[in-house]
Amino acid sequence: MVSNPSIQFMLYEAMLKNLKKKRASSTKGAVGLTAFEIFLLGAVAKLGATLVTYPVNVVKARLQAKQCLEMDRRDHYQGTGDAIRKMFQYEGFGSFYKGMRTKIVQSVLAAAILFMVKEELVKASKLLLTRSRVKPSR
What we know:
about 140 residues, 4 helices, about 0% strand, transmembrane helix, MCP_transmembrane, repeat, membrane, transport
């Protein structure tokens, strides 16, 4: 699903921009973000994106599951709207988030590490590029 990473990056960039803005306006001045702060921003961004998109994945998985004619009518869906209605009617709101704990642990940790490593690589690259420009040629 394309929407999850899109929402994730949008949230991450918005939170990063806000944090940098707050840092620039503080009395300390603009101080670079630590790896741990980036880690937390990445984790929160992925958590937000997953909370928004997970129900869509659950409905999609239910629709793709084998639906036999002999099955209980509650588990046989005519389409997306029918699946959403029946899930809510027979199982409640929580049915849209079944199995999410495992997904959160796996995906949030992976995203947080990814953003932290990305930002550290960007910092290192900028540092290397500025050092190579400053060095006098012989």
